[in-house]
Amino acid sequence: MFNLFLLQLLNGAQFGILLFLVAAGLTLVFGIMDFINLAHGVLYMVGAYLMATFAGMTGNYWLGLMLALPATLIFGLVLEFLVFRRLYDRSHLDQVLATFGLILMLSEGVRILWGSAPLNVEMPELLSGSVPLAGPLKYPVYRIAVIAAGLASAVGLWALINHTRAGMLLRAGASNRPMVAALGVDISRLFMLVFAGGAMLAGFAGAIVAPILSVDPGMGESILILTFVVIVIGGVGSIRGAFLAAILVGVVDTVGRTFGPIWLRMVMDPSAAAQTGRMLAPMLVYLLMAAVLFYSPTGLFGRRGAK
Q1: What are the residues facing 119 on neighbouring strands?
Q2: Model pTM?
Q3: CA 74, 98, 46 angle in degrees (round to 5)?
Q4: Cα–Cα distance measured from residue 175 to residue 303, given in angstroms and rounded to the nearest whole number
Q5: Which of 243, 246, 224, 202 is CA-nearest to residue 51?
Q6: Tell me: the pLDDT tens digits for 35-66?
């Protein structure tokens, strides 16, 4: 039982890292630009498809990753220039409707280009195999590398936001955007850079998860809902909050789905416990969100008095 718990804890941490990579850019876009982008999950999906395409073309995982990241960045910039830039001054309802329509268009475009059948990416030889953890328990090297890459990205983001001039502008823009514009900062350029960084992080998450999960047209929508849960729990505009909330959501979701039916067997018969556990497990993250909002309506690290 301990080995199973440790295994699911690591799986939850790895899932949380992926959620953080997607949520980090989205929380900055929402916190600084006050822009609701429901199509952010599409960038995660496009990153995975570009990774599958380039890795298949070159026959090399690392070359595929090096090509997929700038390609996702360029794709995000094109979307920002053609679509999102025209929505910044519109109402939240207009933003939701426009980005939802964009989800439908891009998902259909992916089906036209790559088809509906799932794609797979070969795991790199360097990161294949597993390492022993405790007793007979082993854990895949690639999943450990995903966790390490996510942690490195989190540290890099923290250093960028807290110890650079660009980070100072980001923090100032999140707190008082009109004042930043009045001081002569090019807000359009700042918005473009924020969106580009968020697009590349989401694409990076999709690229590194491609060897673990199948790449399919619906993968962006499935992660987007949990990404918004992460942002709400962590606090809009907070990278620190997004990281802690993503790990918390990933662990609660993964461990709950595995151990929920096991714990329910203590008070129910096995068949009823299994059925009830499957029904209740997806609700755990939303119960967690409700508990956090009850304690702190702006999230764990949200700005007090924020709208």
Answers
A1: 215
A2: 0.87
A3: 35
A4: 9
A5: 202
A6: 888 888 899 999 999 999 999 999 899 999 99
